[in-house]
Structures are given as C-alpha cells and as structure tokens.
Design goal:
This protein is of the alpha/beta class and 392 residues long. It has two domains: 13-275, TIM Barrel (Alpha-Beta Barrel); 286-391, Sulfite Reductase Hemoprotein, domain 1. It has twelve helices and 15 strands. It has helices at residues 11-14, 47-59, 72-83, 100-103, 126-140, 165-182, 197-210, 228-242, 261-275, 306-316, 336-339, 371-391; strands spanning 21-23, 26-28, 35-39, 64-69, 89-93, 109-112, 143-149, 188-193, 217-218, 248-250, 291-294, 326-330, 345-349, 353-358, 361-367. The strands form three sheets. An eight-stranded parallel beta sheet has the order 8-7-6-5-4-3-10-9. Strands 11-12-13-14-15 form a five-stranded mixed beta sheet. The longest helix is centred in the last third of the chain and has 21 residues, at 371-391. It is globular and about 60 Å long. Mean pLDDT is 91; it is low at 1-14. Bound molecules: iron/sulfur cluster. The site of iron/sulfur cluster has 12 residues, from loops. Iron/sulfur cluster is lined by residues 295-298, 300-301, 330-332, 334-336.
Length: 392
Amino acid sequence: MTTPVPPDTGLQAQHRTTRAVRIGRVTIGAGHPIAVQSMTATRTSDVEATVAQVRLLEAAGADVVRIAIDSARDVSALAAIRARTSANLSVDLQESYRLAADVAPHVDKIRYNPGHLYHHEKGKAARDKVAFLAEVAARHGVAIRIGVNCGSIDPAKAGRFGDDSVAEMVDSAIEHARWLDDLGFTAYCVSLKDSDPAKVIDANRRFAAARPDVPLHLGVTEAGLPPEGILKTRIAFEQLISGGLGDTIRVSLTVPNDRKGEEIAAGRRILDDIAHGRFRSVPENFARRLNIISCPSCSRVENEAFVDLAEKVREVTAYAREHAITIAVMGCRVNGPGETDDADLGLWCAPTHVNLKVRSETVGAFRYDEVLGRLRQELDALITARSHGATQ
Ligand code: SF4
C-alpha cells in the first residue's frame, strides 16, 4: 500500500526526477508514490516473534520492513523468516558487512552505515568493502541504502568541517554514492538522519543539491516517544516533501513492540496531510524547551524495560520542561555510547544496568530502579549551573 500524491496539489510537479530503485515489489524514485517503512524491534533470532512483527507492520500498511542482522544466528533466523513472509524485506547491517553475502538471497535491500565499515578488518579500505557489498547486491538483484547517521559518522570525516556536522554527513553520503557509481551500481538510495529535524532538513537539501538523481529515504532518528516524536518527524517531512524531496520514509518512535504499527500510521497520516496541503504550525520555541530524544528500539535492545524507562524519563523530568536541555535515551551499546555524546544528559541501556552520561562523560552505571533518581540529581545540577552562569 502506498500513498500517491494527488495531482491537484502541485506537489507531484515539484517532485524531483530521481532514478527508479526497485525494492522487491515496490519501486521508489522517478515519481513513484512515497513508500512507507518501519523496522522490527524483536530479537531477530526469535523467528516467531519477528514474523509476527513483520505481519503486524504489513497489516499496518508497511511497504518495506527492515530487520537488523548482527550474527550468523540472525542470518539463519532470517532465512526462516523469509520462508514465512512475502513482505519486502530490508536488512540493517552493522559492523559485520560480510554478512551481506549470507543475507542477500533472502532480502530485497541492504542498508549499510558508512560509519560502521571501520570496525572490522581495519586494514582494508572502506571503498573495497563497499565494492564487496555492491557485488553481492548486484548478484542477487538487491537494492542498497547508504544510511548515514549523525551518531556514527565515518571517523575520516569527523572534525573535517569544523562545527558543521551536517557537512560531515553530506560529504560521507556523496563519497559513498560516488563509489557505487564508479562500481557501476546504481540501485541505491541515501538517508541522512539526525535527531534534530533542522539538521535533517539541511542535510537532505544539501545532498539533493549535489545529487538530484539519487532517491532519498527520509527519517528523523531517535525522534522519541509519541506525540513529540511524530511532531519532530513532521517538522522535517513537511519541509522536505513539500519541496519535492523524499522517496521513502520512516517515522521512528519509541513504542512497545505491539504498537510498532503506529510508525506506519503516523507516516501515512503525515504524507496524506502534506498531499492535501494540511500543514501543522510548529511552536516557535519547540527546540528551545526540554527535548527528549529516544531510539525507536530494534532487535539490539538489551533490556525490554527500555521503552518503559524512556516513558519514565519523560515523567520525572517534566518539571524541567521550560529548560533547553536535551536528554537522550538509547536502547543498546551499538549506538548508545556514540549517540548520547551530543545530548546534555544521556542514558544507554545494558542488560542489567543503565549507563548515565553528562555530555560525553560517563557518570556511572546504575540499576534500572535507581537511575531515575540519579538522573534528576544531574538534571538539577545542570539547571543550577546554567542559572548561575546566566546571573554572572
Ligand atoms: Fe536499535 Fe540500539 Fe539503535 Fe536503539 S540505539 S534503535 S536498540 S541499534
């Protein structure tokens, strides 16, 4: 199921003519309807639970469903999942890029993150790893997404553009797109995600100016709990899609597994509103208040108490809503440590403990039932320090 852009809104005419990329039975780009996707958050090795979630997302109207793959065990589970669903499947690779060869026969798209190609086989050039991925994808007729993420930037780009973190993301995406072009592989799209909607808008506009031919996957990463997570995503999508940018979307929300269909429903609602000219005004001071970002969770989440923790963080910090402070809550060690660095206060979940940070400094690891008290202490200290600074 896809949402066409009605011809009378004028948005179709503004839509860029990107190249067409096929993902199973769905085609994105070249004026095709914008496809809506989501990601499973069950343990991939739990075939029953993951198949159930793929079906839940399909029933909610997902055009593509993404599954995280981190191990040989996940690969075997993926084969079993594929046998039980005809959904258009994408896989999310982290460091183990070589798993692409094992997963490609079972899926329609592979997402890799340029910033994660450096962890394994450190002596091998990233370009050669991309060549491996392109060869595998071409052999199996599988699309690729170059998925650039603010929290895991290619170390070769970090700091090269001063404070311009958007330039790091855009440069990385352009470089990888050029590598794939040089390899003769064109069935790819690009995403540039940040938890700040303004940076998502900026990054996608800059990339599209340089590469108007490449289809874009839009998303605000770690948008957080609804309704704020939907509002942040809407801010970015309204600006980009109404300007003709975006060929597939994902709304990332921190919700329990049985509510993952809400990501699809929210995405379709935003597309429908944009298509009919129904734009929401965004409070001018939205970004100048307490901002809680949290990941949407996926199979890598280390303790299912994570979603509950994110909700409790919102409750216990509500008293600070008028303060421009960002708190990040992340579900695992894969992206948690890096993606909490830029927040004022960060929490990332381990199996039995939650790691608490103030900016990039770790305060300590606390039990799930004690971390909220410590978070409040740190929040109070931060508010006091800022008010003290303001009076000097
Ligand atoms: Fe998945 Fe970890 Fe990212 Fe959360 S932070 S979405 S659990 S990889």
